[in-house]
Amino acid sequence: MTTVNGGISFWYADTGVPVPREPLPGDISADVCVVGGGYTGLWTAYYLKKAVPFLRITVLERKFCGYGASGRNGGWLYNGIAGRERYAKLHGHDAAVALQRAMNETVDEVIRVAEEEGVDADVHKGGVLEVAYTPAQLSRLKAFHEAEAAFGETDRLLLGARETAERIRVAGTVGGSWTPHGARIHPVKLVQGLARAVEELGVVIHESTPVTEIRPKHAVTPYGTVRAPYVLRCTEGFTAALKGQKRSWLPMNSSMIATEPLPKEVWETIGWQGRETLGDMAHAYMYAQRTADDRIALGGRGVPYRYGSRTDNDGRTQAATVEALREILVRFFPATAGVAIDHAWSGVLGVPRDWCASVELDRATGLGWAGGYVGSGVATANLAARTLRDLVRLDSGQAGPTELTALPWVGHRVRRWEPEPLRWLGVHGLYAAYRLADRRELDAYSAQTDPVARAADRVSGRG
Ligand SMILES: Cc1cc2nc3c(=O)[nH]c(=O)nc-3n(C[C@H](O)[C@H](O)[C@H](O)COP(=O)(O)OP(=O)(O)OC[C@H]3O[C@@H](n4cnc5c(N)ncnc54)[C@H](O)[C@@H]3O)c2cc1C
User: Fold this and answer.
1) Three-state SS across the chain?
2) Which atom of ligand 1 is nearest to the CA of 80?
3) In contact, 407 and 391? CB cutoff 8 Å
4) Rounded to two decimals, what is the model's pTM?
5) How far apart are CA 231 and CA 145, in angstroms?
6) Domain coordinates in residue numbering, the chain
7) Which of 103, 230, 341, 448 is most exposed, with the fewest beta carbons within 10 Å of its own?
8) Ligand 1 centroid to 12 CA: how many Å?
9) Distance, CA 174 to ligand 1 centroid (Å)?
10) Whose Cα sits closest to atom 30 in ligand 1?
11) Ligand 1 atom 16 nearest Cα
């Protein structure tokens, strides 16, 4: 059994890694320059060009569209958004409810546009199932369920152990919570289809073109500079590598494995007919999907962060992380004990110091950005992009304020991360604490969240 490690991600295994489009040929001018060809950058280009067809939009991508998290994620297209609770504290409950409602609609918006543009991304809208397998997790699950209802998610179902197992038989499950606001997707099919759709609209994409510096009205690359009144930074987990951004969003690793296609007998043991995306309530949580070709793709936090905000090499992940993920797989589904792990990979998320996603267009400079989605960016990037579209149109006098420009994450600023070695020590300490808390909750089998996790939440700014 050989496991492919890296190769960007399993999602490229069938098609291979794409041949990059032509790099920037020299100095050019544009109306809007988008830096980064992931979901955020491509959706932004898509919606802007749709709204204002005469706009000259250039996308600059360091490698190829979908090189980053958009080509490596778990394929949960769902309504979670990082920072909602903090936004409720800062702007009031109603503002956060509006943000959540917009996220619920975003899941369907992505599915709608994918269909309209002929992008077949293996979409299956089976909802999201979160399970608990310790009493402490069950307490958190119930609190989470109530919080979601308070933010307007009244169609969520709280499930007992048996009802949960009727959907997916996770060993030891004591309860679950299911929401319809989620779909399984194939991440690469979505990002590549989107790039094609954007290009067909007349947006110019230059790949193999790293932007070394962004300053007002300029995106600088080794091959030339794009001059544009609006330069929009959509670089998420890679942002720290840009000049002046070292201590903004921290590149947090997330790693995944994909099994071989599982035989019918194994699926009969597991269930999972509804193709829900699956998560748990552990502090160092896992996430999984049943792929269109009947594998399990499962992810979680391995080595959480590389010293100095470095990123991985084309998705390669550590052997210890692969083993840890395999252990989670087998603990969840003992029937997978003998199955091969075909692929392992990792990628980076953008984590702001206060764990809140944000969108911004600075009207004085024309510089904009969107991201800091932590682990919830597949749908959020679409909402962010439509918001950036509205902010550009507002600023250029083409349109007035909209419901999206009024959402509480617009214009949110956050302090920078600590310098090294504090950053490294902090993040590694945090995840060591979460793993310890998960083990202690399993051993104690009590309904209380472990105090170590509570302390870690307070220190990290997540609590
Ligand atoms: C393993 C993993 C699993 C995940 N699972 C989920 C999930 O199931 N559901 C969910 O909602 N979210 C998930 N996420 C998060 C989600 O994938 C991201 O939030 C989302 O894809 C971010 O999109 P983006 O376009 O902002 O960033 P990216 O997709 O990272 O795109 C940024 C792009 O910018 C390019 N770039 C960077 N620097 C430069 C530069 N200087 N010049 C030019 N180009 C540059 C990069 O090459 C990259 O293509 C996961 C992330 C990872 C890593």
Assistant:
1) CCCEECCCCHHHCCCCCCCCCCCCCCCEECCEEEECCCHHHHHHHHHHHHHCCCCCEEEECCCCCCCCHHHCCCCEEECCCCCHHHHHHHHCHHHHHHHHHHHHHHHHHHHHHHHHCCCCCCCECCCEEEEECCHHHHHHHHHHHHHHHHCCCCCCEEEEHHHHHHHECCCCCCEEEEECCEEECCHHHHHHHHHHHHHHHCCEEECCCCCCEEECCEEEECCEEEECCEEEECCHHHHHHCCCCCCCCEEEEEEEEEECCCCHHHHHHHECCCCCEEEECCCCCEEEEECCCCCEEEEECCCCCEHHHECCCCCCCCHHHHHHHHHHHHHHCHHHCCCCEEEEEEEEEEECCCCCCEEEECCCCCEEEEECCCCCCCCHHHHHHHHHHHHHHHHCCCCCCCCCCCCCCECCCCCCCCCCCHHHHHHHHHHHHHHHHHHHHHHHCCCCCCHHHHHHHHHHCCC
2) 11
3) no
4) 0.96
5) 40
6) 420-463
7) 448
8) 15
9) 33
10) 68
11) 377
Identity at 70, one-letter amino acid code:
S
CB of 234 sitting under 6 A from ligand 1: yes
Per-residue confidence of the chain (463 residues) as pLDDT tens digits? 699 999 999 999 988 999 999 999 999 999 999 999 999 999 999 999 999 999 999 999 999 999 999 999 999 999 999 999 999 999 999 999 999 999 999 999 999 999 999 999 999 999 999 999 999 999 999 999 999 999 988 899 999 999 999 999 999 999 999 999 999 999 999 999 999 999 999 999 999 999 999 999 999 999 999 999 999 999 999 999 999 999 999 999 999 999 999 999 999 999 999 999 999 999 888 999 999 999 999 999 777 888 888 888 899 999 999 999 999 999 999 999 999 999 999 999 999 999 999 999 999 999 999 999 999 999 999 999 999 999 999 999 999 999 999 999 999 999 999 998 988 888 888 888 888 888 898 888 888 888 888 888 877 766 5
106 lines ligand 1 (CB under 6 A): no
